Amino acid sequence: MQRPPRSRTRLRVTFKKAVAADLNAIARVLNQLATYSRRVNGRSRPTNAAADILNLRPKGCQAEQKHLWIAFRGGVPIGLVDLIEGYPRPGVGFVGLLAIAEPQHGHGAGRAVFAELERRARRLKLKRLRLAVVGTNPVQGFWGKMGFRRTGETRARWGERKKRTLFLMEKRLG
To answer: What percent of the chain is helix, strand and coil (3-state, nearest 5)?
Structure first.
């Protein structure tokens, strides 16, 4: 059976910078990521996930380097984007998370959210975007379509319940 062609209509999303008062909206998106969370963390939802994503940043990074946005479609939160500006070095933005609520998968939401993230990264004058994909998360194909390539670097990290292998990917912003 052949799939119908995807619509070329661009999905409209808006971003809002997340603040402490947005914990419920953050939690709403995180509660719709059970499959992702099981693959990455070994459980349906990590403990204190909404507060953690709002506050966590790499050692040595200042609060103003962290950009956490909630992506909305029609006033409903559908995704989260975490970008660390100037990490691991100046001119680079590290995408700590780009998560789309599972009911939105397959409808162009990921592509639309990434397009807005890329626009904002360019406005911040970033030259490259980097990210790490957990080996058990089958999104490397998506990131490849968005122009990212593996760097050849890998990292091992402990999640909440299991050890994870991370594959680093990078995209040059022209």
So the answer is: 30, 35, 35
